[in-house]
């Protein structure tokens, strides 16, 4: 009888090892698939962000060119004279008078 119990115990132990190995294998495969899908999702997101960055850089360059064109001095002067009707003042003569008393007090 002890031999039968030992054989049964040995079979039970062996089947428990096989089931544990199977569970570990399936768990590892599920983890690998989850990790693979997660990594692919991150790569897609990185690719999308890189495309968005390139688009924003191109848009920024266009805006810089527009700003440079709009802020030219001749364009501003033309708008000021035609649309706002501003005029350039005539040059004035400036005379500087130095008081000799102020210089003597120093």
Please write out the topology.
Layout lengths: L1 H69 L2 H10 L17 H6 L1
Question: Could you describe the 3D structure shown?
Answer:
The longest helix has 69 residues. The chain has one domain. The protein is 80% helix and 0% strand. The protein has 106 residues and is mostly helical.
- Low-pLDDT windows of residues: none
In N-to-C order, the SSE pattern is HHH
Total number of strands: 0
Helix-and-strand structural type: mainly alpha
Task: Give the amount of beta strand, in percent.
Answer: under 5%
Which descriptor suits the 3D outline? rod-shaped
Number of helices: 3
Largest sheet: none
The structural domain count equals: 1
- Helix % is over 70%
CA gyration radius, whole angstroms: 43 Å
Amino- and carboxy-terminal Cα gap: 127 Å
Keywords:
mainly alpha, 106 residues, 3 helices, single chain
Brief account:
The chain is mainly alpha-helical.
